[in-house]
Amino acid sequence: MTVFNPLPVSSRVARSFGRAAQHYDRHARFQRDVADQLAARISVTEVEDMLDLGSGTGYCAQRLQPRYPDANVTSLDISTAMLAHARQQATGAGQHWVCGDAQTLPFRDSSFDLVVSSLTLQWCASPERCFTELHRILKPGGQAWVSTLAEHTLEELRASWAAVDDYVHVNSFLTLPAIEAAAQCAPFATITVENRRDRYFYESLSALAKELKGIGANNLNDGQASGLTGKRKLQQLKSAFEMNHIAGKGIPVTYDLVFIALEKP
Ligand SMILES: C[S@@+](CC[C@H](N)C(=O)[O-])C[C@H]1O[C@@H](n2cnc3c(N)ncnc32)[C@H](O)[C@@H]1O
User: Fold this and answer.
1) Chain-centroid distance, C-alpha 137
2) Which residues have CB under 6 Å of ligand 1?
3) In three state form, how does the secondary structure of the chain look?
4) How far is the CA of 217 from the centre of ligand 1 (A)?
5) How many angstroms separate the alpha carbon of residue 36 from the centre of ligand 1?
6) Are 222 and 6 in contact (CB under 8 A)?
7) CATH code of the region 10-158+172-200+253-263
8) Rg for the chain (alpha carbons), in Å?
9) Could you read off the pLDDT of 24-76 as tens digits, one per residue?
10) pLDDT per residue over 81-119, tens digit each?
11) Which atom of ligand 1 is nearest to the CA of 28?
12) I want to staple 86 with a disulfide (CB 3.0 to 4.6 A). Which of 45, 58, 66, 148 is the partner?
């Protein structure tokens, strides 16, 4: 089965994240939470070669380094600006930075004991190719731990835009079965999938927009309106979104989280 994610070509993704590299960390509260949750799930003890796939500013590698102090750590990202930022912040020896695409990895077969990849898969047009590549570059017995987002993510924002016009304003995400099907394209010994919907609260529409823009998560789907959105439409959007405000909490936004653990035979 071919799983096709209607997302944009990698160069647009690279540009979008590259522009955010300098301020990504300031806006990445959700990404930090998810990376921490992913790291807490990893049960591998012996690691010689580790890959942080879609490393961004390098948080996952930094977070795991104390657990595997002797490991060679490679960080791969499609954005050179993200990698440059990660490199500046890195401490410790045995680290490498590689610019590349998760869908065609520039590594030999059986190179890594552990691959960690947090919130990158949803930016790849072919998750199927990512999983096949993960399988190829893992050593026998190696594990990959992946976090990604599924279809209900940002549904409140999508619904608010739907009250305004018919254009695509919010990135779309794959369904859980489609993500599972993509993982099953490669002959892993085990595939464990955990799905959880979390709600984060925002004080306003602009707070959410600032966060998404701050980390480089711009809408890159086809079907966008051309030109700027007028004042009247923005006001309509704000009203529709902020109508969901819960006293004492803020405006809820759903993140449909998926954690995947894969082991190569
Ligand atoms: C939301 S950020 C997550 C960064 C980091 N893993 C974290 O948890 O903070 C997504 C990252 O994936 C990278 N990315 C997107 N598509 C990619 C691809 N096809 N191959 C490699 N990296 C990609 C982006 O450049 C960006 O740095």
Assistant:
1) 20
2) 10, 13-14, 17, 28, 31, 35, 54-56, 59-60, 77-79, 82, 101-103, 118-120, 123-124, 215
3) CCCCCCCCCHHHHHHHHHHHCCCHHHHCHHHHHHHHHHHHHCCCCCCCEEEEECCCCCHHHHHHCCCCCCCEEEEEECCHHHHHHHHHHCCCCCEEEEECECCECCCCCCCEEEEEEECCHHHCCCHHHHHHHHHHHEEEEEEEEEEEECCCCCHHHHHHHHCCCCCCCCCCCCCHHHHHHHHCCCCCCEEEEEEEEEEEEECCHHHHHHHHHHHCCCCCCCCCCCCCCCHHHHHHHHHHHHCCCECCCEEEEEEEEEEEEEECC
4) 10
5) 16
6) yes
7) 3.40.50.150
8) 19
9) 999 999 999 999 999 999 999 999 999 999 999 999 999 999 999 999 999 99
10) 999 999 998 887 889 999 999 999 999 999 999 999 999
11) 9
12) 58
Looking at residue 203, its amino acid is: E
CA of 165 from ligand 1 middle (Å) equals 30
